[in-house]
Design a protein that fits this description.
Order of helices and strands: EHEHEHHEHEHEHEHEHEHEEHH
Distance between the termini: 52 Å
Number of helices: 12
Number of strands: 11
CATH class of the largest domain: Alpha Beta
Mean pLDDT: 92
Length: 340
């Protein structure tokens, strides 16, 4: 079988692990041939690709990013679906393994409907894809953010000031919640639950007065209640219409300082969360997912995504995976409120 691979959307720790496992499984077990498309969906749109051999991939497991490059090219438009289908046929591709999040796999679902054999692999550090217990890159991002908050806590306590640490999470607060719990932060502010700014300020004031650290973890898409802030106002958008969010930590630091009468600084971790080498858990998960995607193709499956469910890797329809975002249930935050 001649299989195409591509990585779309934001870069993420573990992408190379999926590429490596798919090629090793396909070549060594089934005698497959692999073509890597460059820069996400732009690759098959422009027929930009490179061959992938065992020698090309066997040492890339610990590497961050993706050796194929990525982009936010929107392949979901009808004319682009037809162009990609034609280009895959011209490249003699029998099946495609797209690795990405909601947008990348949404395009894969449309390609499958158009007759292209596709098995997707879920990727997003936000952990917001449905149908899978966890997405690779999430655990690495939480570990990086936790280390940042651990360090911020010592500065907060030493200088008797509040610190607001901003992590990724446009619509889902999984990183913020897990980081806050792992690092014993003062609060986790997530997009799913609008927060009370006066309550947060009061908590920071009380902690500083008690000579304790006061670090608040906020997801980039979080919004306070009864406040005029709009995190998406005036921001540029990508091809999918997604607004570039980020920077709420600076707004919150100013407001908390004014309300609490306590010096408060902002720390934005930003793209560091999704760069660099993946943790051991993500290396194992990506290895299992890449091999499972190839096996699914050889079972004749299409229009599906490989997913972690309990201890097993299973397949679910792509439409199910991208149909609804997996967000943090408000009751989960409430259940852990006493621990923050």
């Amino acid at each position: 079988m001649r299989i195409g691979l591509l990585t779309g959307g934001g870069d993420c720790p573990g992408l190379n692990g999926v590429i490596r496992a798919a090629v090793l499984e396909g070549v060594r077990v089934h005698g497959d041939e692999f073509i890597g498309y460059l820069d996400g969906w732009r690759g098959p749109l422009e027929r930009a690709s490179q061959p992938l051999s065992v020698g090309d991939v066997e040492d890339i497991l610990p590497l961050g990013g993706t050796i194929l490059g990525t982009s936010r090219t929107n392949a979901g438009r009808p004319e682009r679906i037809e162009a990609i289908k034609a280009n895959l046929a011209a490249d003699r591709i029998d099946a495609l393994i797209p690795i990405g999040g909601e947008d990348t796999l949404g395009a894969a679902a449309r390609l499958a409907e158009a007759g292209v054999r596709c098995v997707g692999v879920p990727k997003t550090i936000d952990n917001d894809l449905s149908g899978t217990d966890v997405t690779f890159g999430f655990t690495t991002a939480v570990e990086i953010a936790t280390e940042a908050v651990d360090r911020a806590r010592t500065t907060s306590r030493s200088h008797h000031r509040g610190l607001v640490v901003e992590v990724m999470g446009r619509h889902a607060g999984w990183i913020a919640l897990h980081t806050a719990l792992a690092a014993s932060a003062a609060a986790a502010l997530i997009p799913e639950v609008p927060f009370s700014l006066p309550d947060v300020a009061a908590k920071v004031r009380a902690l500083v007065a008690a000579r304790r650290d006061a670090v608040v973890v906020v997801a980039e898409g979080a919004v306070p209640r009864a406040d005029a802030i709009d995190p998406e106002a005036g921001r540029p958008v990508d091809e999918f219409g997604h607004v570039q969010v980020g920077g709420i930590a600076h707004h919150l630091a100013e407001r908390i300082a004014a309300l609490a009468g306590v010096e408060t600084r902002a720390v934005v971790i930003g793209h560091v969360q999704r760069g660099g080498t993946p943790c051991a858990y993500d290396r194992v998960l990506t290895t299992r997912l890449g091999a499972a995607a190839v096996e699914a193709l050889h079972r004749g499956q299409t229009g599906v995504m490989v997913a972690l469910q309990g201890p097993d890797i299973k397949t679910i329809p792509l439409a199910q995976a991208v149909g609804t975002l997996k967000t943090v249930p408000p009751e989960l935050l409430a259940a852990h409120a006493a621990l923050l």
